[in-house]
Design goal:
GO terms for molecular function: ATP binding; enzyme regulator activity. By secondary structure, the protein is of the alpha+beta class. It has 2 domains: about 1-45, no CATH class; about 70-190, Alpha-Beta Plaits (2-Layer Sandwich). It contains 4 helices and 11 strands, in the order E-E-E-E-E-E-H-E-E-E-E-H-E-H-H.
């Protein structure tokens, strides 16, 4: 026997459904089997207009200058393999000493088309070989690092790559257990150069 549960009588577990406009609360039913201690999961029916997407609508921040607030950021740059040496040398010259490099494959606006290097074109499959460079820096170093990567990695052709900025909640040095700015700083790095000037 099934009973209808009133929206106000929902347990705290399902109380968030009251606020969601796509949920039809009249369709949530709890089935009693034998005793009150055995409940099944509720059946939820979504209300949506015909021809509407099932996926949720996600809106980006309205400000073009929006950066999530964090002390540290990971700059992930997907660049052409033959530009890595130029980018890493430029980062080293500006005092960025910690860079992680990974070989990756994929496609973007280039669509997996052929890659040009040294005047010749090549393609093995639909994925193009790229290199992902990951750099964790303090908030005040982010724009300088991004500008330097763009300056050194740009060729002006499709396939130059992308840069992603990810907030990092903390940095921990494994050897010493230091956290935060002490763990992020490297002797002779950009922070030391700026503080000694």
């Amino acid at each position: 026997m099934a009973r209808m549960v009133k929206p106000g009588a929902l347990s705290p577990l399902y109380s968030h459904l009251n606020e969601h406009s796509l949920v039809d609360l009249s369709s949530i039913r709890t089935k009693l089997k034998g005793s009150a201690s055995h409940f099944s999961y509720p059946n939820v029916t979504l209300k949506r207009p015909r021809n509407a997407s099932i996926l949720p609508v996600i809106r980006a921040q309205t400000s073009a200058e929006y950066i999530p607030d964090s002390k540290f950021y990971k700059v992930e740059a997907i660049v052409r393999p033959w530009r890595v040496q130029k980018v890493s040398s430029a980062l080293l010259k500006m005092g960025i000493r910690g860079v992680t490099v990974s070989d990756v494959r994929g496609f973007g606006s280039q669509g997996g088309s052929t890659e040009r290097q040294g005047g010749s074109e090549f393609s093995e499959d639909n994925f193009v070989a790229k290199v992902k460079m990951e750099i964790v820096v303090c908030k005040d170093q982010v724009e300088a690092v991004i500008d330097k990567i763009i300056e050194e990695a740009r060729t002006g052709e499709i396939g130059d790559g992308k840069i992603f900025l990810v907030p990092v909640s903390d940095v921990i040095r494994i050897r010493t257990g230091e956290r935060g700015e002490k763990a992020e700083r490297m002797t002779g790095g950009r922070s030391d150069r700026l503080s000694s000037a």
